[in-house]
Amino acid sequence: MQADIDRIIVSRDRIAARIREMADAVGEWYGNSEQGLIIVAILSGAIIFVADLIRRLPMKMKIGLITVSSYHGSRSRPAQIVYSSHVDVTGRDVLIVDDILDTGQTLRLVLAELARQGPASLRTCVLLRKPDKAPPDLKPDLVGFDVEDVFVVGYGLDYNGHYRNFPDIAVLKPGLCPTYRPMV
Ligand code: XMP
């Protein structure tokens, strides 16, 4: 796996430090919530991020899971929710957690679906954002890192199912980099 990596753009140490800050911010928002927080994580890319984030949260919380099929901005094949663990978010404080905000299709879709269910509050948190691509009207409440517009892998993010277990956020060697392809 290491041999496929061209360069690391966010190291594991920087990720860990930033997650501590992000968890503090989430703690300030929801620390006094009586019912506790509902985190909705978008699978599969957010698995490692959400696991690290929630273990630093001091308040009561539940987790919901959603899988979105993604065709990277294709208009003819819009993103679709293909799985939901159906946590009841009505009247609850909800934080959506995703790995990366790229074109914004995924986050917009999940935001709309959860807003429809009438939560008490709804915020969004992404580990990475590609500011060159992210739509200006879609601003997550919490962003870990802004990154350049390259395909990144590691720390939960995959190419063709691989590299999720690589501990840093990295770019693959030229020739191994994908043209964007469907993935869930
Ligand atoms: P959109 O375009 O909907 O994309 O904001 C969000 C989802 O697409 C995946 N994605 C990536 N996955 N490296 C990846 O491994 C990337 O550079 C990348 N860009 C987008 C990801 O699943 C994200 O939730």
Largest sheet: 6 strands, mixed
Ligand kinds: xanthosine-5'-monophosphate
Strand and helix order? EHEHEEEHEEEE
Give the averaged pLDDT, no decimals.
93
Strand-pairing-aware structural class:
alpha/beta
Give the terminus-to-terminus CA distance.
Answer: 21 Å
Strand content: 25-35%
Total beta strand runs? 9
Question: What are the low-pLDDT stretches, counting only 5+ consecutive residues below 50?
Answer: none
Report the C-alpha radius of gyration, rounded. Answer: 16 Å
- Count of DSSP-assigned helices: 3
Placed side by side, the strands forming the largest sheet appear as: 4-3-2-5-6-7
Report the principal-axis shape. Answer: globular
Helix content: 10-25%
Q: In a few lines, what is going on in this structure?
A:
The protein has 184 residues and is of the alpha/beta class. Helix content is 21%, strand content 30%. It is globular.
Structure characteristics:
3 helices; 184 residues; alpha/beta; binds xanthosine-5'-monophosphate; 9 strands
